[in-house]
Design brief:
DUF2007, 71 residues, Putative signal transducing protein, N-reg_PII-like_a/b, alpha+beta
Length: 71
């Protein structure tokens, strides 16, 4: 698994997951429980992971849909 994105924006991961699902790219969200423990303050980022082989296509899908996920 490779990290596709890391964010504290609670709307970005559901959007990215939906776009990836539509393209048949499996993804997995990490750090969900940590962000819940911090009380939803938004200081601990969540990560979205994809299979290593699917990382280039996943990045392309997000770029094509205007999702900012780098740097």
């Amino acid at each position: 698994m490779e990290e596709l994105l890391r964010t504290t924006d609670i709307t970005l991961i559901p959007l990215a997951k939906t776009l990836l699902d539509d393209e048949g790219i499996d993804s997995f969200e990490l750090d969900v429980n940590m962000s819940v423990l911090e009380g939803s303050l938004g200081i601990l980022p969540r990560r979205l992971m994809v299979r290593s082989a699917e990382l280039p296509r996943a990045r392309q899908v997000l770029r094509e849909n205007g999702v900012s996920f780098e740097g």
